[in-house]
Amino acid sequence: MSPIRPAILALEQNGIGAVAALGLGDPDLLPLWFGESDLVTPDFIRDAAKRALDDGHTFYSGPRGILPLREAISAFHKRTVGVAVDVRRISLPGAATLAVVTALQCLIETGDNIVIVSPIWPSIFQAAAAVGAEVRFARLEEDWNAAPARWHLDLEKMFALCDARTKAIFVCSPGNPTGWVMTRDEQQAVLDFARRRDIAIISDEVYGTLVFDGSAHAPSFLQIAQDDDNLFVINSFSKPWAMTGWRIGWLVHPLSLDRQMGVITIANNTGPTSFAQYGALAALSPQGDEFRGIMLERCRSGRDVVQNFLDAQNRMRWMRPEGAFYGFLRIDGMTNSLGFAEDLVRKARVGVAPGSAFGPPEDTETDRYIRICFAQDTALLAEGLSRIERALAAW
Ligand SMILES: Cc1ncc(COP(=O)(O)O)c(C=O)c1O
Prior knowledge:
- It is a single chain.
- This protein has helices at residues 6-9, 15-23, 43-54, 67-81, 96-107, 122-130, 155-160, 184-197, 258-269, 274-283, 286-311, 337-348, 378-394; strands at residues 30-31, 90-94, 113-118, 134-139, 141-143, 150-152, 166-172, 200-204, 231-236, 249-252, 316-317, 326-331, 350-351, 353-354, 369-373.
- It is of the alpha/beta class.
- A hairpin with an 8-residue loop joins strand 11 and strand 12.
- Pyridoxal-5'-phosphate binds next to helix 5.
């Protein structure tokens, strides 16, 4: 008998990786498939990390991140959501992906379940499955008749998925891939329910500042929760500051985990990369706030390019994203998103993520979508969209 856990053997390569494997490295391919903009990390952040290297910050730096960075993160929350988060609740285990894994490790025993609002970035439900959770999907519903068309979360249906073995509800808002933003009232209802049922909330807010309604941040669970609520908030330097390759993010956790978080982060990673933390510190400076503004404008222009493109044709539509930087495009007459995305790589030289990656196989509706990242140069984006349109005509 193999000692390998069945939950690990059951994991499959997600569809984004499968499509990328076909085209990575092709210089003529337009990459819209991953969750990153085409901008290189700004130089003031790179310079700060280079200086840190030259100053000898090449040693272990402590399990939860250097104190000045944790304090700067606390100040960032104060600036963006108006809440002074106690530094004892802030830990940097490594990248946000590892923050998700850490939160899951704190909550899940084999056989427990987690309810995840979908469509959702596949690493989330794969990480949950890997720690031994049964994953239950609370799928957002399409409301095409609303003006404008919008995603809708049926809270009662989501609550009905929870039982005595439910340890966590996972919500990502603004959403990847949908751009859906959860309202304050919805958050309050989820928090009330979770408190009553002793269920934790994992709130993925890595796109929190990338919102298009003019506010500094999408509604955050931090604004309504107490220090000792079972709330885990995931955040990352990757998206607003174009730092995906740096692998650095953070976790806000219940105050009661102050001590244990040091223990678990040592066990997982000894701590985050030392010199990357100095780059992250620079990202939280006023110059970093200015760069976030530039990134948001890039996203806004990208969203406009996609909207204009959609207005001019009749086979693709979207629920216009309220935040994040993805277009989740529904294509009439296309029911095999992986096959279509593979075809786009081979014949049209454009990389997109297949909708099927963002939910379980039985969610056939999601298979009618593709996801593109629009945080790109507008000319490149427009060229990518017209390649998709041409390929669709022949599909
Ligand atoms: C919803 C969501 N959470 C977390 C992450 C991971 O961020 P990081 O690059 O810091 O691991 C991503 C990256 O795509 C994401 O889309």
